[in-house]
Amino acid sequence: MSISLSSLILLPIWISMAQIQQGGPDEKEKTTALKDLLSRIDLDELMKKDEPPLDFPDTLEGFEYAFNEKGQLRHIKTGEPFVFNYREDLHRWNQKRYEALGEIITKYVYELLEKDCNLKKISIPVDATESEPKSFIFMSEDALTNPQKLMVLIHGSGVVRAGQWARRLIINEDLDSGTQIPFIKRAMDEGYGVIVLNPNENYIEVEKPKIHVPSSSDSSDEPAEKRERKDKVSKETKKRRDFYEKYRNPQREKEMMQLYIRENGSPEEHAVYVWDHFIAQSAAENVFFVAHSYGGLAFVELMIQREADVKSKVTAVALTDSVHNVWHQEAGKTIREWMRENCCNWVSSSEPLDTSVESMLPDCPRVSADSPSGQP
């Protein structure tokens, strides 16, 4: 059994507390003091000292994984599925490794959308300057020119991006289960134009600029000798502080700040933006939506803001485990009536497919997805 550094550091304190608690009333003050000491120890920071560096590969090959002919993620050498607990007792490190792999898979799915599905990557905002933050969506060649029908796909919240339903299913099951690719290919085979939204790409992250704090010598009228002594003390203090910080938090990650994308700073904003600049401009007489989880909420918000336009262009909406709420979102009576006629929400249920499921809300019908997850 391996014992972590943090456990070894805390062990004497725990032993002391146990010994003190066996003593008389006079020992209570010591117990209180030790408890106070324990409360001041940042266990998360302490455990970082046990971690290997947070330095992960940036390719699937670097992780020694690849997708096989069935679209399953497998280890190149062993053929085994992905293992989350790569290092025992290091949950944070394992989570960071999982997230790093997830980012690679996101880029891999983007490549599949372009190469496998022949979709075009379209930058937004459409009038963005060279320097401002940007996002993107994917569209088929005929998305805006197809005169008959257009399919629009919206995923849920979280880490997923355009082309994905669930990262967990991509990693643990296969590409067909976790991506939108089967939907896209079938829609295109049946003559639909396709637009794939990217509602979670709301900002870019950049490193926070370091704030320069001028030293007292920068603006002081003190004699040069006195300023030199102060600067020397300041440098020594900074050196000790940096040494302590390196010991306290050797895995300290860069401080980042978020720069939001204009008119696309939330899933709801994104849905309205793509409607105004693309879907509303399309030639299709019939537009169909497939929206999962939070994507359903984004669609309802779109309806609230563009009710007449949506009603005139959208033929049907397939929701899957949608988290919309017509009361909280204050959807009016005419919207609720339209949803009852034109929307259906397939929800997690063990009942046979399409079996009616009771709903507490007066909006669209709910039926069984014949799946415990409700995933499309």
UniProtKB/TrEMBL annotation:
Identification of the protein by name: Arb2 domain-containing protein
Biased composition (Basic and acidic residues): 223-236
UniProt-listed PANTHER family: COTRANSCRIPTIONAL REGULATOR FAM172A, FAM172 FAMILY PROTEIN HOMOLOG CG10038
Source species of the chain: Felis catus (Cat)
Signal peptide extent: 1-18
Gene name as annotated: FAM172A
Domain Arb2: 56-353
UniProt KW keywords: Signal
Residue numbers spanned by region Disordered: 208-247, 354-376
